């Protein structure tokens, strides 16, 4: 017995159709979905590049990526399911590694970080290499974090030195217009075993 | 310091000559350098150095940002040989223009030197932060 597509879809009632009518992938809808049923204590948390860009330009709507950090594997899975259920065909996986799964949702690149899980937002902040990344975005797009002033003032300072990826990450933020004080840069390059060879691992992909 | 005719005649000219002879950047003032005879700001010099010799990727958004800053900052000398200029078609596309410009910058700083030891890269980075 065979069935045509018209017969198949024609058999769907209007209420069943609504179940697969996904939300539009606007920035607000994406952030709402990420933070649905979340708490500040348990996460998930949006922090990093999106916060830094909003610190520079509060009207910014285009982000290199939206990084999401989690307190445990269950929270990670639940967030992934929420995004999938909410955006359906608007969402597809664009890159996967041990560190993160990256999804394109509409015009946005959403990165679910899984290289580690964090007990708190402060622990997420402590993990960033540069202070200007220590900016979180809450469900109302309010910014917080110890790096807010540096992010706004284009100041590049090391929070936690990663000798393997330092030069590549440094180049990225210099390219964005951030300036590292000469003394700080010279201290690092003269006194630390900085890596000069880069591949996908050292670049953190 | 402003980019004046006096600067062109003195500091920039000397730095350009030194950079051509050494193949390395020579400081003009603050964060402005000459490299193989061309004027570059520190940001452009760093990202192109690490792209050419260390394969550090540079995104299109960074290229556009560096390109726009360069054109604005060095506009007073855009008709001189020190300026890194590119030919544009009538239909302006900032990303394409930025890619062409950045590629030209990379070729300028590379010159004939295909590889550089890490120690030399380090020395150049130190110079760029002097």
Q: Which structural class best describes the helix and strand composition of chain A? A: alpha+beta
**Proportion of strand residues of chain A:** 5-15%
- Overall shape of chain B: globular
Separation of termini of chain A?
49 Å
Give a description of the structure:
The complex is a heterodimer of chains A (205) and B (130). Chain A is built from 9 helices and 7 strands. With 205 residues, chain A is an alpha+beta fold. The radius of gyration of chain A is 20 Å and the shape is globular. Chain B is mainly alpha-helical and 130 residues long. Helices cover 56% and strands 9% of the residues of chain B. Chain B is built from 5 helices and 3 strands. A 3-stranded antiparallel β-sheet of chain B has the order 1-2-3. In chain B, strand 1 and strand 2 form a beta hairpin. The longest helix of chain B has 18 residues. Classes of the chains: A alpha+beta (205), B mainly alpha (130). At the A-B interface, helix 8 and helix 9 of A face helix 2, helix 3 and helix 5 of B.
């Amino acid at each position: 017995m065979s069935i045509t597509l018209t017969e198949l879809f024609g058999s769907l009632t209007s209420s069943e159709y609504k179940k697969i009518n996904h939300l539009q992938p606007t920035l607000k809808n994406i952030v709402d979905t990420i933070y649905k049923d979340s708490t500040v204590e348990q996460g998930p948390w949006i922090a990093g590049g999106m916060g830094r860009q909003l610190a520079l330009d509060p009207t910014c709507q285009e982000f290199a990526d939206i990084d999401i950090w989690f307190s445990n594997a269950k929270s990670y899975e639940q967030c992934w399911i929420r995004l999938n259920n909410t955006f359906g065909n608007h969402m597809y996986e664009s890159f996967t590694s041990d560190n993160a799964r990256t999804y394109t949702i509409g015009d946005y690149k959403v990165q679910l970080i899984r290289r580690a899980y964090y007990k708190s937002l402060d622990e997420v902040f402590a993990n960033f290499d540069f202070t200007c990344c220590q900016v979180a975005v809450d469900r109302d797009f309010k910014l917080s974090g110890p790096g807010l002033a540096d992010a706004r003032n284009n100041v590049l300072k090391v929070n936690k030195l990663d000798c393997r990826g330092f030069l590549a990450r440094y180049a990225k933020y210099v390219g964005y217009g951030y300036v590292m004080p000469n003394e700080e840069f010279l201290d690092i390059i003269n006194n630390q075993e900085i890596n000069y060879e880069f591949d996908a691992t050292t670049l953190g992909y | 310091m402003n980019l004046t005719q006096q600067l062109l005649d003195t500091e920039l000219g000397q730095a350009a000559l030194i950079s051509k002879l050494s193949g390395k950047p020579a400081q003009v003032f603050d964060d402005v350098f000459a490299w193989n005879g061309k004027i570059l700001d520190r940001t452009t010099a760093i990202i192109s150095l690490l792209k050419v010799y260390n394969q550090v990727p540079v995104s299109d958004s960074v290229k556009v940002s560096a390109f726009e800053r360069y054109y604005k900052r060095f506009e007073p000398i855009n008709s001189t040989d020190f300026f890194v200029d590119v030919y544009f078609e009538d239909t302006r596309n900032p990303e394409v223009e930025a890619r062409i410009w950045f590629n030209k910058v990379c070729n300028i700083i590379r010159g004939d030197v295909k590889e550089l030891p890490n120690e030399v890269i380090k020395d150049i980075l130190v110079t760029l932060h002097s």
